[in-house]
Amino acid sequence: VQFFMSVMLSRIANNTHARLYTLQRALFSNSTVSKPNCAVVLSGCGVYDGAEVQESTAVLFALSKRANVQCFAPNIDQMHVVNHWNGEEMQEKRNVLVESARICRGNIKDVKELKSDDYDCLLVPGGFGAAKNLCSFAVDGADMSINGEIERVITEFRSNKKPMGFSCIAPVIPAKLIPKVTVTVGSDTDTADNKWPYAETAQAITKMGATHQNRGPLQSYVDEENKVVTTPAYMYNGEPDDIFTSIKAMCDDVLKLVNKQ
Q1: What is the pLDDT of residues 219-249, one digit of tens each?
Q2: Is 38 a catalytic residue?
Q3: Set 38, 71, 104, 168: catalytic member
């Protein structure tokens, strides 16, 4: 009898645990709070001729537990290839999409496939690739042109009133495309210890008809009207931790705008 009772109690306990587990899974998997879908546009792999690797991975880290992320890049040749060891130009060609795939472990699509209707927000990390491959700012300054697919994507997101985030040098793109937008690349003046080596970018932004807002190295700026969030990241000569904090601030503010929609 004792053996029989022991078996029965064990079965009851197991069934109870199974029901609780099933209930917990149902509660969490059927939650009405769904993750937003975020598109991230990369511009190669490596600060001098592509996307800034630390900024790009910081974006992916900052979004990883809070959003569904899909990376994109233009299927075009880079403007040029730079040896990141010695800074010299290399006599070879590399493809922006192929190089960008290194950052996101191959989970990437041609930017031609990116449609605003499929995503809640757009993020564009910096690096010279943003100024060389997504647009021509590195060569033409305020007279720059923008890659046709990048222009289409940003125009679509803006038309659909969906938030966008740009870090480092990438804010020059909305500055060129979006009338009366306000962005930040950090400071409009350098310091004696060269903490803001690209401060002159602020003047180019103003020349393009946008407004530049000074911000600290760990801060982002939110243009509520245009739903554009920008942050200095490596426009500031800081430590990786500074850049991760800057990028997280941008991602936080983009997701706040998404939640307001």
Answers
A1: 999 999 999 999 999 999 999 999 999 999 9
A2: no
A3: 168
